């Protein structure tokens, strides 16, 4: 089986004509029948802890500029 990169990942059958339709479609492109996709209601979004990167700090001490910025030249 050859995969086509432009084809949608999920398909559903049209209840009107049986045509294979992208599950994001509102209506069948062939017959116009409305497409209803049941989405499970019991799925809970997963929460992940924040990721910290070594050598990077998003917070600066109060009142100080971050160390990676140079002070503005005063003429």
Describe this structure as you would to a colleague:
By secondary structure, the protein is largely without helices or strands. It has a domain at 9-38. Helix content is 0%, strand content 8%. It contains no helices and 2 strands. The chain has strands at 11-13, 20-22. It has a two-stranded antiparallel ribbon with strand order 1-2. A hairpin with a 6-residue loop joins strand 1 and strand 2 (20-22).
In N-to-C order, the SSE pattern is EE
Query: Helix content range of the residues, please?
Result: under 10%
Q: Main beta sheet, described?
A: 2 strands, antiparallel
Number of strands: 2
Shape by Cα distribution = elongated
Question: What descriptive keywords fit this protein?
Answer:
little secondary structure; 0% helix; Znf_ribbon
Question: Helices and strands in order, then pairings?
Answer:
Blueprint lengths: L10 E3 L6 E3 L53
Antiparallel strand pairs: 1-2
Q: Summarize this, please?
A:
This protein is low in regular secondary structure. Helix content is 0%, strand content 8%. The chain is elongated.
């Amino acid at each position: 089986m050859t995969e086509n990169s432009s084809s949608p990942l999920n398909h559903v059958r049209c209840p009107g004509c049986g045509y294979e339709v992208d599950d994001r479609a509102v209506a069948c492109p062939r017959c116009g029948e409305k497409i209803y996709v049941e989405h499970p209601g019991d799925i809970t979004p997963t929460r992940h802890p924040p990721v910290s990167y070594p050598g990077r700090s998003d917070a600066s001490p109060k009142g100080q500029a971050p160390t990676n910025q140079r002070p503005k030249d005063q003429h």
